[in-house]
Amino acid sequence: MNQQFEQQLLSSWQERQEFAERMQPLLGKLYRDHAVEVSVYGRPLLGVTSIDIIKAHRAVRLFESHKLRLRESWPLLEALSEMKLAPGRVDLGKLAFQYHHSDHGHDSIDAFLRDKLVDLVDVEDTTESQDVVLYGFGRIGRLMARLLIERHGKNNKLRLRAIVVRGGKEGDLEKRASLLRRDSVHGPFNGSITVDHERNAIKANGVFIKVIYANNPTEVDYEQYGIKDAIVIDNTGMWRDEKGLSQHLESKGAKKVILTAPGKGNIKNIVFGVNDDQIESTDNIMSAASCTTNAITPVLKAVDEKFGITHGHVETVHSYTNDQNLIDNFHKAERRGRSAALNMVLTETGAAKAVSKAYPALEGKLTGNAIRVPTPNVSMAILNLQLNEESNKDDMNEFMRHKALFSNLQDQIDFTNSTEVVSSDLVGTRCAGIFDAQATIVEGKSATLYVWYDNEFGYSCQVMRVVQEMAGLHYPMLP
Fold first, then answer.
1. DSSP string spanning 420-465?
2. Is residue 31 within 8 Å of 153, Cβ to Cβ?
């Protein structure tokens, strides 16, 4: 009996592996040929392994009453690959679950898909490609490069054309390429990277990236490299106001600029999913706010709209950053001069006040503080809130689970119900924040909510969404 059980177990696993391996080329083809990104209940399948595909299907059991088997989703993916589709985002998991476990009234997979994906099927794609330049090539710059490169294909609409860094010394090009190739936190680059000395460029997975050396934006003429009307992503944080960032617009070939840090003055601070409707085609300068603001604002907005928030305090437990000292040394800011690798460092954060720039309903209702801790990535925000309406832990968690899966905030809010998850498990998360249901505390009108966030990669994904909107790339998310 044990031998028979073991054989059945192995056969079941092999079947899943075979289906996952058959899915991989179709997933890649859908993106390369149609710019269609496929996911399973929010888990992206672009460039993943067969094991990742299996795990994404297995996770569906956490949200639905039935399992989702790969043999159930395979025929829908196969049908999708044969359709003429416009660029968009398709949740294969939700489609397959609806098809197999609901009364949808369709006789065939083809008819079902054409009904559910009416905005994509046989729709002509008329959008033009957009040149993108990375000004600065630090932590966020290199992650933005990875995100842009992974989407490379004949129908790719965002084209990484160049990076701009300060004057290079001997061996600079190899150093830049090596930092893109290897990352201590996010692991190795998924693909091939070579250095082109003759053209002073980096070639990555077929993408030619010109490396331009300049000490300020006004020194750069992008047009001489064939770059036109580019969106410049400023990752340096050197300029945060309109006057400083306007220097980018003086460069020939640059049309718009986005700052990957909180903007000052009248610059729009965009938290995608919350106030991206404020992005207008005439906007030339804007900010993607901060990683913490992106993590907490979607959750706060959802909670405020459901229960109402009278006031609250946000405490962030944040990984150390390059702004701190590795060992004790002089630093102009209080406490940040002490060793980041050895200390918890109490410091300030403007994220709580910055929430109101994206979601004005909470103006004057939040305070905030931060503790920098000796981990290199993934942070946590603890939201201590006073609500207008009474609730309890189960209702709050169910509400947030639904928001994470089925609302227009599903790209911003992820959800975990694990009793064992720790910060390193969440490296590489593409959502702005991950709601930790096990840690939720709700007593009447008092609520304490815990939100994890990958302050590097998750934030970079939010920046990417803003860039797409600035480029006029409006990809529907279906179903």
1. S--GGGGTT--SSEEEEGGG-EEEEEEEEEEEEE-TTHHHHHHHHH
2. yes
The answer to whether 322 and 293 have CB atoms below 8 angstroms apart is no
Q: Is 153 helix (H, G, I), strand (E, B) or coil?
A: coil
Residue 75, C-beta contacts closer than 8 angstroms, at least 6 positions apart = 109
Sign of CA pseudo-dihedral 73, 79, 82, 83: negative
Q: State pLDDT tens for residues 109-136.
A: 999 999 999 999 999 888 889 999 999 9
DSSP letter at 63 equals T
Task: Please write the tens of the pLDDT for every residue from 448-459.
Answer: 999 999 999 999
d(CA 1, CA 178): 54
132 to 56, 135, 253, 264: CA distances (angstroms):
31, 10, 10, 23
Of the CA atoms within 13 Å of residue 103, those in its CB half-sphere come to 0
Residue 67, CA atoms < 13 Å, CB-side half-sphere: 7
- Choosing from 201, 291, 354, 449, the catalytic residue is 291
Using the structure block, give the residue that is written with the tokens 């006029």. Answer: 472
pLDDT at residue 168 above 80? no
| Model confidence pLDDT, tens digit, residues 184-215 | 999 999 999 999 999 999 999 999 999 999 99
* Helix, strand, coil percentages, rounded to 5, for the chain: 40, 25, 40
Per the annotation, the verdict on 461 as an active-site residue is no
Residue burial 224-243, b: 16+ Cβ < 10 Å; e: rest: ebebeebbbbbbbeebbeee
Rounded Cα distance between 67 and 61, Å, is 5
Contact by Cβ (8 Å): 457, 186:
yes
CA-nearest of 206, 334, 351, 357 to 278 is 357
Note if the pTM is more than 0.90: yes
Q: d(Cα 424, Cα 415) in Å, to the nearest integer?
A: 16
